[in-house]
Amino acid sequence: MDSINMDVVAQEQQEKIPIEETANFVLDESVSNENSNKSLLKYFYWQYFSRYKEGKEWKAKYNYCKSVLGTNPRNGNINLKKHVLYYWKRIKLTNLRQSTIDESLQRHGKNSSDAFIFDVSHTRKLIAKSICMHEYPLSYVDHVATREVFTSMQPTFKMPSRNTIKKDIFEMYEVEKLNINKMMDANDSRVAITTHMWTSNQKKGYMVITAHYIDSL
């Protein structure tokens, strides 16, 4: 094989190296060989770019400012190095801020989990609320998969029966009705009342009352 064909094969092999693999190279300052250092530098700066082919030319898109640079294995990657060094301060600042945010979220999550106390009554209220809000049947509490979900989150939780959850719903209704009465008593503006009626698939009639607040002029 002559020297020209060897150069072509070497170029094709270098172009086939995926960017994910080149991003794993880390610059080792202890390497004494100058040519080896240059080679590592070439791979090191690729971790900040996404490589793709446009027509017959390879392009490199910078992952931070989205700038597109030309890249050719024969000419080296000095333009990538210059671009990264130009934005190096911004990269370090972004990483520093992100690390601070991540650490804060981790501390908050740890404190929240440490202070968590399971409240059975609160969970029952949420189940009753979900049934009313999403119009689930009362048999929702009897579904095997539903019980498995709650057991996986809290093994000691005992799913309430239909009658128990029905009682919880009526209690919640009385509380909400009392809250609405207090809110209407404290209201100084006028309110327009509209009603809407419909029949369910069980042939039961329902009516909803909507209050429209009218601001005083």
The total tally of domains equals 2
Largest sheet: 3 strands, antiparallel
How many E strands? 5
Helix and strand element order? HHHEEEHHHHHEE
Which shape, going by the Cα principal axes?
elongated
Mind telling me the C-alpha Rg?
33 Å
Q: Unreliable segments (pLDDT under 50, ≥5 consecutive)?
A: 2-38
- The fraction of residues assigned to DSSP E strands is 15-25%
Q: What structural class should be given to the helix and strand makeup? A: alpha+beta
Strands of the widest sheet, in order across it, are: 1-2-3
Q: How far from one another are the termini?
A: 93 Å
Rounded mean pLDDT is: 73
Helix content class: 40-55%
Task: List the total number of helices.
Answer: 8
What does this structure look like?
One of its GO terms (biological process) is regulation of transcription by RNA polymerase II. With 217 residues, the chain is α+β, with helices and mostly antiparallel strands. Helices cover 52% and strands 17% of the residues. The protein has 8 helices and 5 strands. A 3-stranded antiparallel sheet has the order 1-2-3, with helices on one face. A two-stranded antiparallel sheet has the order 4-5. Strand 1 and strand 2 (57-62) form a beta hairpin. Helix 6 packs across helix 8.
